[in-house]
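Tutorial handout. Part one gives the primary structure; part two gives the three-dimensional structure as tokens.
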Amino acid sequence: MSGDFANLLADLKEDEVLKLTKERIESGEDPIKILEDSRKGMEVVGKRFADGEYFLPELVFSGELLKQVTEMVKPHLTKAVETKRLGTIVLGTVAGDIHDIGLNIVDFMLDVNGFEVHNLGVDVPKEKFVDKVKETNAPIVGLSGFLTPAFDAMEETVEALDKAGLRKDIKIMIGGGQMDEEVRKYAKADAFGKDAMAAVALAKQWIGAK
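Part two.
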């Protein structure tokens, strides 16, 4: 079922995906598993976009479809989450990049795992990250990006946080389509997370370490 679900999502079969989501919830399946399959499907979408098989309309539609799935799943997840917030996180897709699919999955997973998330959205200028960290005193910042130009924007954002005197007090994670350990070094971030669950694990580790 998992593979079918991921493939249906990747193929943008809206009716089938929503029907299957409903069936899986009703059968009492762990909602985290549904989200994990959604992530796999979105990875295929991302690859097809990178390979020129999908274009912006497909990317936007897949994001809307994912939103519908998460809305259906969310009520069944939050029951398990305690109301106490573990900590605050500022998230955003860096300047010049408009991809928010991965960003929204990370936002969602952090939220249901007990974090207070300030999602700044897409194409976020470095100054906005600086202002939000000052305003919230968030100890963690998540920078998302999908395309190669995001590498420089991430590096510039980390530098701006440093110049503002905030760098020593925060941990910065990066993630997204083409991000890896090399980009992390280039951007001078603290960690690279390959997916939303990695982001949650990092955030919990950092909060615990403080």
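Part three, for discussion. The CA atoms of residues 155 and 187 lie 4 Å apart. The first strand starts at residue 87 and ends at 93.
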